[in-house]
Amino acid sequence: MTELDVTGLCVDLAGHEVITDVSLTLAPGELVALLGPNGAGKTTLLRATLGLVPRRRGRVVLGGDDPARLTPAERARRVAYLPQVRALAWPLPVRDLVALGRFAHGAALGRLGAADARAVDRALAECELQALAHRPADTLSGGELSRAHLARALAAHAPVLLADEPVAALDPLHQLQVMSLLRGHADAGHAALVVLHDAALAARFATRLAWLKDGRVVADGPPVDTLTAARFREVYGVHAVVRRVDGHWLVAPERAA
After folding, report:
1. Which sign, positive or negative, has the C-alpha torsion 81, 49, 36, 228?
2. How does strand 4-13 pair with strand 57-62?
3. What is the rounded distance in angstroms from the CA atom of residue 43 to the CA atom of residue 252?
4. H/E element holding 248?
5. What is the pLDDT of residues 13-55, one digit of tens each?
6. For residue 254, what pLDDT is reported?
7. CA-based diameter of the chain, in Å?
8. SS3 of 33, please?
9. Mean pLDDT value across residues 206-225
10. 196-217: average pLDDT
11. On the chain, which terminus has fewer CB atoms closer than 10 Å, C or N?
């Protein structure tokens, strides 16, 4: 079963074509990393996939339905979205922030059912936030707040997770921990589409790499097939050393192409 099926997607913003004829699938068990330079259309692709920006042409099917036709609650039960910009409207305690991930299941702050409470507690533990559970979220560091928002997304237990730069502002240890959580999410039978800028990190954890340039997917496949020096030069305009060392990927940009 394919959880997400995007076919021939085209999106215009402010009169300019930003996404051009993009097709992409996401199946249970897959962690797909979306790579590409700034301005390639990665965030717009995620938002269009969710039905948050209109598409000019193309088809999107999420769990059997067009997400643009779902109510917000129905959509939230099928897909958890971790946007690049995660503003706080008010200084919620961290545990309450994570509990927002359960709202689509009928939960409310201060009235979590047993299943909701377990989901929140597990997400806090997975993201190593138990000690911060009662801290106001606006007192967290950037990295801590990023993990809190990830915990909110994980607490939703949605079949699909879309994450836009989830490791931004994180130190190397927490980058690895976050990617391990996303990999575990996929291994548990869910699906994740993640925007990343670190190709080596993406190749270490992702099932597939989808390379986006100028609004088009120019390659989509396993890291061993798509992560090459030629691909890096094509997409980023940078000469790089790309090799595997002891089973791990090394990507070292050297100079502009």
Report:
1. positive
2. antiparallel
3. 25
4. strand 248-256
5. 988 999 999 999 999 999 999 999 999 999 999 999 999 999 9
6. 87
7. 57
8. strand
9. 97
10. 97
11. N
Neighbours of 162 (CB within 10 A): 25
Query: Do residues 240 and 256 make contact, with C-beta atoms less than 8 angstroms apart?
Result: no
Read off the pTM: 0.92
Angle between the 114-126 and 142-155 helix axes, to the nearest 10 degrees? 140
- Assess contact for 202 and 36: CB atoms under 8 A: no
Identify the burial level of 21 via C-beta atoms within 10 angstroms of its C-beta, where 0-12 means exposed, 13-18 middle and 19 or more buried: middle
Token representation of residue 15: 């009169």
Cβ neighbours of residue 62 closer than 8 Å, sequence gap 6 or more: 3, 4, 49, 70, 75, 78, 79, 160
Separation between Cα atoms, residue 192 and residue 115, nearest integer Å: 23
**Nearest in space to 223 (alpha carbons), one of 241, 205, 240:** 205
Full strand arrangement of the beta sheet holding 4-13: 16-26, 4-13, 57-62
Residue 133: both structure tokens together = 């559970």
